[in-house]
Design brief:
Length: about 110
């Protein structure tokens, strides 16, 4: 056993709260429709109707997924009259997706 290596590994470990939140984030993203919504929102905001058309799902299904994504603070919304527009909460959400996609594409090559 290498005590220095063990100490370094221990110092790098996350708290239980951090691990739980990360696991919850990945669990929410572990759905193809939600991932398509994240991809569609990368760099732009869209209303539910536009998202539904883009991802090929019903308005109610997209609304349900958006509610879950909002609860995890992965997307945000703003109202403009009768329409609600959605966008990624911050660039980190797009980066999560992009890193996952890059990893998968490397595996597919």
């Amino acid at each position: 056993m290498d005590p220095k290596a063990v100490d370094a590994a221990l110092a790098a470990l996350c708290s239980e709260q951090e691990l739980t939140l990360i696991a919850d984030t990945f669990q929410i993203l572990a759905n193809p429709t939600r991932l398509q919504i994240v991809r569609a929102l990368a760099g732009r905001e869209l209303c539910v109707g536009d998202l539904a058309a883009a991802v090929g799902a019903s308005h109610s299904a997209v609304s349900h997924h958006l509610r879950q994504l909002r609860q995890m603070r992965l997307v945000r919304h703003r109202r403009d009259g009768k329409l609600t527009y959605y966008a990624l909460d911050d660039e980190h959400v797009a980066q999560l997706f992009d890193l996952g996609l890059e990893h998968v594409r490397e595996e597919l090559e």
